[in-house]
Each structure stands twice: as structure tokens, then as C-alpha cells.
Amino acid sequence: MPAFHAAVAAPIALRQRLLVPVCAVLLAGCTWYHREPLAPQDTSTSARSLERIRIDTASMPLPELAAHRFDPADGLDIDEVAMLAVANNPELKLTRDDLGIARAQAYSAGLLPDPQLSVSSDYPGQSGTTRAFNYGLSIDVMAIVLRSANQQSADATVAKTDLGLLWQEWQTVAQARQLFIKTRFQQDTLPLLQDQLELSRTRYERMAEARRDGNLTDDTLSAALTAYSDARKQYTDAQRAAEQTHHDLNALLGLSPDVQLPLQAPAADEADSPEPSDAILDSALAKLAQRRPDLIALQAGYEAQEQKYRAAILSQFPSLSVGFVRARDTSNIYTSGFQVNLSLPIFNRNQGNVAIEKATRQRLRDEYQSRVNQAYADVAHLRADNAILARQLQQAEAALPDVDVAAQHAASAYAEHNLALGAYTDAQSASLVKRIDVATLRESLAEQRVGLQALLGSAIPDAFSPAQNFIDTHAK
User: Fold this and answer.
1) What value does the mean pLDDT take over residues 52-56?
2) DSSP track, 232-287
3) The domain spanning residue 297 has which CATH number?
4) For residues 45, 92, 73 and 191, what is the CA-based torsion angle, rounded to 10 degrees?
5) Could you tell me the sign of the dihedral formed by the alpha carbons of 376, 377, 378, 379, in that order?
6) Distance separating alpha carbons of residues 157 and 143, to the nearest angstrom
7) Is the residue at 20 inside a domain?
């Protein structure tokens, strides 16, 4: 028995000596687990943190932003707000995480399958016999056959996700610019609404005093009270709208609620920049499918599905794995051979997955066409609406000088006691209302233009050509 135990222990010790370096090599290439706890506190950017933010202009999704300098020390202009949104928006951070996942999946799809090693050993219980063993090495051949289609599908998915991120960045830029425009509009119109409120309040208080003296009728005082109440409600609603805009802008930029952004007034050449011509818009619309990242992303997604459909068709063939075997039996006879594992495509034949991938491809094709059609419809709607707003603004601006002159004359006459309070406040209110109307139409036109830029895929009109380089970079 001692000899038997020694015979058994010897090969065990030999295997242990061989396994130690093999395990060391395998473990050296492994990834180790590290715990990363969650942060339960608010991590939004504070006012102090905002001063230390540095933005890499090379990572900006549009050429006009990449060429712009970010410096919050002197206040933020419309492009700096857009740059901050791209760099700090919480939703964009999640989409970038999704891109990291897609890249990891593409890396996984390109890896070759690991070979399978099988080891078995038999120890005889009587003398005169030898320990038997069976060593086998095999690999999944079908995994190698499908590797090309799977990797091409994963690479196309990465391109789709990357272009989807670019499109979301463009939408975020548009939202940031529109909120900048809205904030500046509210900062300009709130003083006008406050002046209107003060005029209405003064008129009502004077008329209430006249009513107490018996010099005014109740219906006239009621009309003044209604005007005062309307002006107060309009001012309060404007304050609430300004607070909502502040909340939306801070949320978009990833800022704490208490941060008050110092926004620069737009330059005169920016505020009065000419509208893009029909020829520029038509040219941009004709190249829409090659320009807009969401449409190119759908093209990449369709290509990914093409490869999935191809892989499903290849999977109809029998699953095959081959390997080699080296064995020894208890009578000390050595054998060498091979093994083949083959599935029999009798019932399933992967027909269900083929049907699923084919139907999915058809849905992606229809989704792409629907998005293209919707894009053309949206652009047509904005162009028509923009033309209506432009005519309204032209009419309002044409009427503004006469109203202002009438308000100035009324102020002079009232100061000389040659005009009643009611006529004076009516003239001033008419001027304020017209100014608010002009500002509202200007804001609507500016937001419409930003929306048109987002739909057509970059700034209008001068940044179309360089923007294509950004798209091509993401599509590769």
C-alpha cells in the first residue's frame, strides 16, 4: 500500500507544479474587482466650482464652439453657455457612458473564443495496472465563423451610439441657446412689465382717491382696478416664467439651483444678423441625410442589423466544435485522436431568430424613412412659421416709433399739467405694450432660428462645411 500511495502522489505533485505557473500567467491578465461606492450627496456644480471649470474646445461638437474661447470671468455669452451644456449636462454624461458600454461590447465581439481543455484521470485499485488519463483540447468553430459578422455589427452599433451622442449634443446646444435667449428676453422685459404695473397702480390709486372725493364714478374705477389687476398678474406670471427658465437652464447645465449665471448681452451684429436665404436652406435640406447625426446614426443602426441578420442566417448551419484527444488506459496503452461535436439542424434550424432579425431590419428601415420624412416636414413648418413671425415683427417695429413719439408727447403734456392722468397712462402703456410685443417677436424669431439650426445640422449659414468634418469624424 505505501508503494501505491507513492505512485498516486507523484503524478499529483507533478500536476501541481505544472498548474502553478499556468495559473500565475492566467491571473496576471485578469481584471481585479475594486469597490466604488455611491455618493449620496448633491454633486451639482456650484458657483465656486464653476469658476474652476476648464473646457476642452477640441471636444466640442460644432466648429463654431471649437473655435470659441470659454472664459466665465467676464460673464457667459450664448456660445459659452452652449459649451458648458455640452461639457456638464447630466444626460450627456449618461449617453457617454452608453458609448463606453458599446465600445466594450465591440471589443468583446472581436475576441476569439477560448479553447476548451478537458482533463480526466483514473486511478486503478489493484497492482499491475497503470493510471489512466484523458486530455482533450477543442474550440468552437462556429464562434469563429460568426466572429466577423458579430464584430461588424458591434462596430456599427458603436458608430450609431457615437452619432447618437453627437445628435444629443447638438440638441443640448440648441436647448442651451434657446434658454439663453429666453433668459435675456425676460431680463429685458421684466422692467417694462414693472413699469406698466407701476403706471396701472398709480392710475388706480389716483382714481380711487378721486372716487372717495365723489369726483369719479364706480364703473370708471372698476375699469382702472381691472387694468391694475391684469398688469399685476402679467408681471407675476413673468416672474414665475423667469424662475422656471432659471431652473431649466441650471438643470441643463448641471448647476446647483442657487447658481446665478452672469449672461452677456448679445452683440449688435449677432442680434441683427440676417436671416438665411432660401437657397442656403434648400442646399442644407438637400444634404440632410448626410448631415444630421441622428439620420446617420440610424444608417449605422441599420447596418448593424444587417450584420445581425447575416449572423442569424449563418447560424442555420450546424454548430460545430472540433478538438484533439490524447489518452492512456490502465493497461498502459496510449491513443491519440480527435473529437467532433455537431448539432443536428432538424427542428429549430435557427429559423425563429432569422425571422426576428429580418423583421427588426424592416422596422429600422421604416424608422429611418419616417425620421427623414419628419425632418423635411419640421423644416418646412419652421420656415413657414418663421416667415409669419418676420412679417409680424416688421409691422410691430414699423409702428413702434409713432407709439414712442406719442408717449413722449404725452409725458411732456402731463408734466405741464396739460393732459389728464388717464390719457397719460394710456399713452405710456401703449408704448410699453408695443415694446414688449417687439421683444417677444424677436425672441420667438431667435428661438426659431436656433431650432432651424438644430434641424438642419449646424449654424446657419457659414458653418455648414466645417460641420461636415465633425460628422465624418464621429461616423468612422
Assistant:
1) 88
2) HHHHHHHHHHHHHHHHHHHHHHTB-TT----BPPPPHHHHTPPPPPHHHHHHHHHT
3) 1.20.1600.10
4) -90
5) positive
6) 20
7) no
Q: What is the pLDDT of residue 461?
A: 37
How many other CB atoms sit within 10 Å of the CB of residue 153? Answer: 23
Q: Could you give the C-alpha distances from 161 to 102, 174, 202, 353, 362, in angstroms and in order? A: 7, 20, 60, 24, 20
Task: Answer yes or no: are the C-beta atoms of 189 and 234 closer than 8 Å.
Answer: no
Which long-range contacts does 329-336 make (Cβ < 8 Å, 24+ apart)? 329/130, 329/132, 330/122, 330/124, 330/129, 330/130, 330/131, 330/132, 331/129, 331/130, 332/130
| pLDDT tens digit sequence for 143-161 | 888 888 888 888 888 988 9
List pLDDT tens digits, range 369-412.
999 999 899 999 998 998 999 999 999 999 999 999 999 999 99
Find the range with the poorest average confidence among 239-248, 263-272, 346-355.
263-272
Cα distance between residue 402 and residue 425, in whole Å: 16
Q: Is residue 15, in this structure, part of any structural domain at all?
A: no
pLDDT band at 7 (very low <50, low <70, confident <90, very high): very low
For residue 367, the enclosing domain spans 76-475
Dig out the grid coordinates for 162 from the structure: 457615437
- The pTM (predicted TM-score) of the whole model is 0.78
Residue 85 covered by a domain? yes
Task: Report the domain count for the chain.
Answer: 1
Residue 11 belongs to some domain of the structure: no
